[in-house]
Specification:
Blueprint: E1 11-20, E2 25-35, E3 40-51, H1 53-66, E4 73-78, H2 81-96, E5 100-103, E6 106-109, H3 113-125, E7 127-132, H4 140-156
Parallel strand pairs: 1-4, 4-7
Antiparallel strand pairs: 1-2, 2-3, 5-6
Helix pairs in contact: 1-3
Length: about 160
């Protein structure tokens, strides 16, 4: 997890979402990065031809954090329990087990391990607080990210 908070770091809000048509199938990711004190916003989205919803959720977070050009305090808003629990609970356990997870009495490789490892590296760089938002509940930025993600895969499908 990130080293202590730095009050001199910029503070941003990162809204993310992933979408998939079929699971696996064509998928899209999107993020909105907002700097509340300046009002600046950045929207980005993208597409993968054969992917899963979970992968798209992770890619959205990665792309959003990679858009930052210096260490930043980030409030990450996601409707994905997979992303939220992965960041706040699972990564330390997986790392301790050599990027494996407990399945019954045995350890099995973590799914999407390369994406989780990238997120782990980004968490070392940025101070990230995960905030769970309800999906498809009228949350404006979450709805916008969903629209962008769906539009991204529909453009290519």
């Amino acid at each position: 997890m990130p080293k202590g908070s730095n009050s001199h770091q910029p503070q941003v809000q990162l809204f993310t979402d992933g979408a998939c048509s079929g699971n696996p199938g064509p998928g899209g990711w999107a993020f909105i990065l907002r700097h509340p004190s300046s009002g600046k916003e950045l929207e980005r989205s993208g597409y993968e031809s054969n992917t899963t919803n979970n992968r798209m959720e992770l890619v959205a977070v990665i792309k959003g954090l990679e858009a930052l050009n210096r260490p930043t305090t980030v409030q990450l808003m996601t409707d994905s329990a997979y992303v939220g629990k992965g960041i706040s609970e699972w990564i330390p356990k997986w790392k301790a087990n050599g990027w494996q997870r407990r399945e019954g009495k045995k350890l099995t490789p973590v799914k999407n391990v390369e994406l989780w490892q990238t997120i782990d590296e980004l968490l070392d760089e940025h101070q990230v607080e995960v905030v769970k938002v309800a999906g498809h509940s009228g949350h404006p930025e979450n709805e916008r990210c969903d629209e962008l993600a769906v539009a991204a895969y529909k453009r290519h499908h």
